[in-house]
Specification:
Blueprint lengths: L1 H12 L1 H11 L4 H31 L1 H27 L4 H22 L11 H7 L4 E5 L4 E3 L7 E7 L2 E5 L2 E6 L4 E2 L1 H6 L6 E4 L3 E7 H10 L1 H14 L4 H21 L10 H10 L2 H21 L4 H28 L4 H28 L2 H31 L3 H21 L2
Antiparallel strand pairs: 1-8, 2-7, 3-6, 3-8, 4-5, 4-7
Length: 426
């Protein structure tokens, strides 16, 4: 019986290698990837409903279902979160994007905490602050360093985090600026040369915004234009007509930007950051994370290896669902720079480990009570459902949009037909 469980576990997981081969040597279209992923999700949902939920409820009632599904979902979420943050995030495109998003959010939070006292940032909505933060570059200036020079083109806008600087017009000191103030925005807004020279008088920490990103920032944050107009009004020492003209322009820009503002917290990651994150990935963590995804399915196959009607119908559903999972993961790992032989070796190892997990499930079936087995099956069902809801289904929708609904329906009905022979025979 152990050998049967091992072979069935390998058979159910063998589509992982097939999917990996397709993902490594062929770049499927987004529509194809979405359709097959949604179809696999539907078959697995059907298997959970008819091959785990109904049998467990019939033999042990609702309480083991509730406990098992909740425990399985919690375990899956916690374990995958831990694995992703220890280098396993590259095993799936969905987990990669989630990790990149969280990594970016950590960086953004640090920037936002440092610029919270900056005058033009204080009244901005949080969403706009988050959209601006990735464009800001931290710099450090020593006393005597020239930050802006009168008469030169304006390429940068500065926010002072710490330290002081003198504003000079020729040899005359006009003003001393400190933490929370900004400078350099006038040249960017008007396109005219710098109107004054700014020199660091103490060690300074600043955030720098390049001209090429300035208009983008105003697009993400129309309130920034309004904040800059107030800052300019307090500092400008020109004729009243000039100040009114500038503020009128700023107000016009603000109104135009409000009409077309697009807040996008998933802004494009620069290649340097992506390369650094890929280097942080760990092959062992990727293996463990992938195994966590497949343990629940293999364990259920092993627990029911002796019940032909149950084992084979569930096995077919697992086989179908594993193919798109491996295809998507292998394709994402290839794009991240993982070598082809490493990807294929990973998935071959997963197939063997899945067979061993099936053996473990069979041992549990033979040496524990029916209630323990029921709870174990429910835990597996909860973990599988958590995997579907957090990776396969969101990714299918992202790739294919609403059309994946029909593929999911077909997958669910296909799974039902596989299970219907013994269900209708009862």
């Amino acid at each position: 019986m152990l050998m049967a469980a091992f072979l069935q576990g390998i058979l159910g997981a063998s589509s992982l290698v097939l999917g990996a081969l397709v993902g490594v040597f062929w770049q499927p279209s987004r529509t194809f990837s979405a359709a097959i992923m949604a179809f696999g999700s539907g078959t697995l949902i059907s298997a959970i409903a008819f091959e785990i939920t109904i049998p467990v409820y019939q033999t042990s009632g609702f309480r083991p279902l509730l406990i098992g599904f909740m425990v399985g979902g919690i375990l899956f979420v916690r374990l995958t979160h831990y694995i992703d943050h220890h280098g396993g995030f590259l095993r799936k495109p969905a987990s990669s994007r989630r990790y990149l998003f969280e990594h970016r959010q950590e960086k953004v939070s640090d920037v936002l905490s440092r610029i919270a006292h900056i005058e033009v940032m204080q009244n901005l909505p949080l969403q706009e602050q988050q959209a601006i933060a990735p464009f800001l570059k931290p710099i450090h200036a020593q006393p005597g360093e020239i930050l802006c020079e009168e008469g030169t083109p304006g390429d940068y806008f500065y926010m002072i985090v710490d330290g002081e600087a003198e504003v000079r017009k020729g040899a005359k000191v006009l003003h001393t600026m400190g933490p929370g103030e900004v400078f350099g925005e006038m040249a960017l807004l008007t396109g005219e040369p710098r109107s004054a020279t700014v020199i660091a008088s103490t060690p300074m920490d600043l955030y720098q915004l390049h001209q090429e990103h300035f208009n983008t920032v105003l697009t993400y944050s129309p309130h920034m234009a309004w904040a800059l107009s107030r800052a300019l009004a307090r500092r400008l020492r020109f004729a009243t007509e000039s100040r009114v003209a500038i503020e009128r322009n700023l107000e016009r820009w603000r109104q135009q930007l409000i009409d077309r503002v697009e807040l996008d917290l998933l802004m494009r990651e620069d290649p340097t950051t992506i390369e650094g994150l890929v280097q942080r990935s760990a092959p062992l963590a990727i293996v463990i994370g992938t195994l966590i995804d497949n343990i629940p399915e293999s364990a259920v196959i092993g627990m029911n290896a002796g019940e032909n009607h149950f084992g084979w119908s569930f096995l077919v559903a697992v086989f179908i669902s594993n193919f798109p999972e491996a295809l998507s993961s292998a394709n994402g790992m290839k794009q991240a720079g993982t070598r082809k032989h490493q990807i294929l070796g990973l998935w071959i190892g997963m197939v063997i480990l899945s067979g061993l997990c099936a053996v473990g499930g069979n041992v549990l079936q033979d040496h524990t009570s029916g209630l323990v087995v029921a709870i174990a099956q429910a835990v597996s069902g909860g973990a599988i459902l958590a995997m579907l809801s957090s990776t396969m289904m969101p990714e299918a929708y992202e790739l294919g949009g609403g059309s994946v609904s029909f593929s999911t329906i077909l997958g669910f009905l296909s799974g039902f037909l596989i299970s219907s022979s013994h269900l209708l025979g009862k």
